[in-house]
Amino acid sequence: MFNECLQMVLNKHNYEVVGVALDGVEAVKLAVERRPQMILLDVNMPKMHGLDVARELQNVLPSTRLVFLTCRTDEGCLREALQAGAKGYILKSESLADIEIAMRKVSAGELYVSAGFMTNLIVQWMQNRQNPEEREILSLRESQVLKLIAEGHSTKQIAGLLAISPKTADSHRARLMAKLGVHEIAGLVRYALQRGILSEN
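Given the sequence above, the corresponding structure tokens read:
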């Protein structure tokens, strides 16, 4: 329903919608086939994570403007989206008219981040100043890998669940262990429990 409403608004403002994908793998396939000027992505997508989609498309379609349209309001997600080549980060809580305005700005070469996100970012920043020990040090992908490791998944299973290669999954595991100064699975499980990443149940 959201997609249909958004398409109506875009068509009304003379955008041509050349394709709609239901998952990350299909998004990459359609983008390579149709080479659009702009691509709207969500962060959480089936089959292939939105950030991985953006990284892939940045390599194969460097001139295409990537825009995230998402509910995710955490700083780490924004940082990774921009590093993946995104030119816009729009919250779904914005009105369809505001989303179109944001897309127009990105089309004109501007970088756009939702004002509502910036408010949330300021709140997070203030909380981090008050509680520096709680500051997030893992990337979004590293946090996902940590959760899956703590749940007992093997490297091969993690690779399948996140639509990445086993080698990439291993790299994420090594990086997060180095960041946390942990060298065994039990230590990762304890960290996940302490941070609420993994439930004791």
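Residues 2 and 96 are 9 Å apart (CA to CA). Try to locate this feature in the token string yourself.
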